[in-house]
Predict the structure.
Amino acid sequence: MEGKGDNHSLIKDLNDLLHKGRLSRREFVRYATLLGVSAAAAYQMAGIFRPTRVYAAPVQRGGVLKFSSQVQKVTHPAQFSWIAPSNQLRQVAEYLTVTDEKNITHPLLLENWKASEDLKTWTLNLRTGVRFNNGDEFTADDVIFTFNQWLNKDVGSSLLGMVGSYLDPTGIEQVTKHQVKLHLKRPEIAVPEHLFHYPALVLNHRTFEGDFIKNPHGTGPYTLETYLEGERCVLKRRSDYWQEGADGKSLPYMEGMEFVDMGTEMSPQIAALQSGEIHGIDLGDSAGTDVYQALGNDKNVSLQPIATGTTRVLRMRVDMKPWSDNRVRSALKLCQHRQKILALAYFGEGALGHDTHVYPNHPEYCTKDIPNYDTEKAKQLLREAGYPNGIDVTLAVGSDWTDVVRYAEVLKQDAAPAGFRINIQTMPTSQYWEKWTEVDLGITPWTHRPLGTMIMNLAYVAGEDGKPVAWNETRWVDKEFTELLMQANGILDAEERRKLFCRLEDIQMERGSIGIAWWRNVWMATRATIKQVKPHPNGYLLFNNVWMAR
């Protein structure tokens, strides 16, 4: 266990909060690791027994794991806006950190990190002896290059809105070949978690020229052998990967992985999993209810559930009529019959939402009443906004997301008494993603994030230039909201941060640009012969230690 003198002074504050009952043991571990304490030491400090991993049978090597997954067009990893390509390419390139299924963040390409007392200087100590799959050594130059890609406005990465809110290129300092310091513009506790945002793959500064597929040089356990858009992604095991397995030999255990694009219809993927043609289904960007219904009792399939902050966001562009009028936005949100939507769109497998992008398991979540379905009030708001005879609107949705389509259908029916005449415009998922920030009214899938501050910085603020950040699809920017959020970003005490979030949630509910009717449970679906698979709330395939029983 680390000596007390090595720990950040805020660890004492965390201990006090823990013993006063204001912080759970799990949250203590989470924050202690963010402050640079190792996970093992943090569990011990919290008094949590962390069992040693015991294998029921010896690990077996070999085999090629086959998953169904959309194989999309990709170039720059920092531009990812969906999970599927990150699940494929995270096997080839890696992140500086990794946040596990319990929301605990660990070093990956970092050996460790240290935060200054004021949380404004972060020292990143890089792992030594790591090489890219083309033989190049992993160094600070690669980290700095990757950070600069994120912060380059021309790249258009969502990381610009998240990391760029507290860091600019002048704040990145190379100390040594394996040490980088980040000098932040403001305090930020969640830096290590942000380094695992799914577009944050670390790039080889010597070979990356904007298209990873052309030069697929990463530090991960596999090499990219084939990448054919709409067809397949084929990966081959590296023999010189830096991590070691339970048997004392280099990871990974499997000889390869193959992602097969079977389209977006779920029934053939379910049939292929049942027959053993594939070993798993990537549900990172998909509704899992079809899988849940079809495979829940199949003894040959492992279906592992996990509650998440993944959701479907009813989003309205505030720079376009009629959504520039908050009365119209509020009216539509009132037309969500949330219990009905959750039951019909997702078979009740989730939790109700309240039109703010903070979910019950976020540490800063402030409990609010779930808004009632109220078409009379909605109708009055439309009259006040100048639409006494109702209004015609078009709602864009991806046809491949069955729960999204059902959400839209229920909303269309239930909003009609208020005066909304909704035309549902369905389109292929790929087409929706091409215009998801451009449509005036749509329903966009958003994946889980471990912090409420993280999602707010991604989607509901402006950059330094005053323009909405890349993933602010609604263009909603609120001065009071932004100021409170910037304060919350630097507050460690979850209870104190929650006080700000009570107001932040109110602002987003009262004058925001989104409706959130429910939060989704998700599943990891694999053959029972695939071992050491853990469901992740983001749907990430963290498969370095996965092996196949034969």
Summary: The radius of gyration is 23 Å.
